[in-house]
């Protein structure tokens, strides 16, 4: 199967209507353990004229070995980037969609802290649902786009930046809970992870409302 590289076609078109694009993508939505993370990548008109970094793809299409290098080049390519988080405890308390909104809002605030202005910005959100506006403090112009992580280079950048950050966190958490093998499954519902939950129960990092031992494999 030929994997088509993401482009900046949509971003260049939209930047004729706004000053800045803040592209967002989430990772960890289907995991049993660990936080959800949302990456943010900022693109302006000048940045949209620059060449897309070689090898940049939606994070699911980049091998684990190559992701850190691709993420580093993606972060250097965009004008600013950040990762917002919502903990497993927050997922249990408010549900996955509101937790995604919290993480997305924190990602937006992260790039605002680096100087990005939302005044005439468009938030380009991967997916078909705006989970951000109901949570973020203040109005935002949000445009959900299906498969944006695959087709839009700035969203691909946000995707791989968030994926590498979350994977690194899960590897760190593995050190305190090696029985779950988060260094390998990153908190998703692999067979080994489900078996460890059966044997050892839940850790403080599990989404207690989700961690069912017979949950289907989600990746």
Automatic annotation (TrEMBL):
The keyword NAD does not apply. Its EC number is 3.1.26.4. Manganese or magnesium. Binds 1 divalent metal ion per monomer in the absence of substrate. May bind a second metal ion after substrate binding. Its cofactor is Mn(2+); Mg(2+). A divalent metal cation binds at residues 25-26, 126. InterPro entries: RNase_HII, RNase_HII/HIII, RNase_HII/HIII_dom, RNaseH-like_sf, RNaseH_sf. This is Ribonuclease. Its main location: cytoplasm. It comes from Microbacterium saperdae. CDD domains: RNase_HII_bacteria_HII_like. PROSITE patterns: RNASE_H_2. Endonuclease that specifically degrades the RNA of RNA-DNA hybrids. One of its GO terms (molecular function) is metal ion binding. Pfam families: RNase_HII. It is found in: Cytoplasm. One of its GO terms (cellular component) is cytoplasm.
